[in-house]
Amino acid sequence: MSYTFSMEQNLVGEAGLKSGNNNRDSQSIKRTVYVFIDASNVWQAQKTKGKLFDFEKVKIFLKKRFNADVMEIFYYTAYPANGTRDYDLSSRHKFFTFLKRGLGFVVRKKELKRIQVVTEAGQSIEEKGNMDVEITIDALHHCGKYDVAILFSGDSDFFGSSNLPTTAR
Residue 146 in contact with residue 72, Cβ under 8 Å? Predict the structure, then answer.
């Protein structure tokens, strides 16, 4: 069973959760739930809405909502290289540590790629931190371990594959 979540919906109100299989009584069946969070897209949605997730509350909500006896949450993010910002990045790394040690998340992170772009207007640096492949690999690698997969992303690239873990079993 897979669930998709629309970032335009309010998580706490459960309005954005859609199931491909509504025949099960969600309160009587214990499930193994895996959550895949695309941090970049989630961050953009949070900025747009002006509200931030409390990931501890999100974890508690999802565990209760899906009656999970086992829950694994993967958080995918890319971060700027040291020296590329004129502000301190240590708080970001403290946040990753909190997710890992405090909440038990699996944090997958990599440094942003810096790509030099030359146009008629001149040279600039573009940064890319795409984690789509990592998310897909983990979702497929673990597909036999979970009953429910939840993807947090605003990336439309995942739309076509949202049923893939269900059919891959």
Answer: yes
Q: What is the CATH number of the domain that holds 154?
A: 3.40.50.1010
Tokens coding 52: 């931030």
DSSP state letter for 100: I
Rounded distance between C-alpha atoms, residue 67 and residue 80, angstroms? 37
Mean pLDDT lowest for which of 39-43, 62-66, 145-149?
39-43
Number of domains in the chain: 1
Per-residue pLDDT tens digits for 111-156? 888 888 898 988 988 888 888 889 989 998 998 999 999 988 876 6
CB 62 within 8 A of CB 32: no
Greater pLDDT, 107 or 51: 107
* CA proximity to 92, closest of 112, 67, 73: 112
SS3 3: strand
CB 55 within 8 Å of CB 99: yes
Domain range enclosing 127: 2-20+29-168
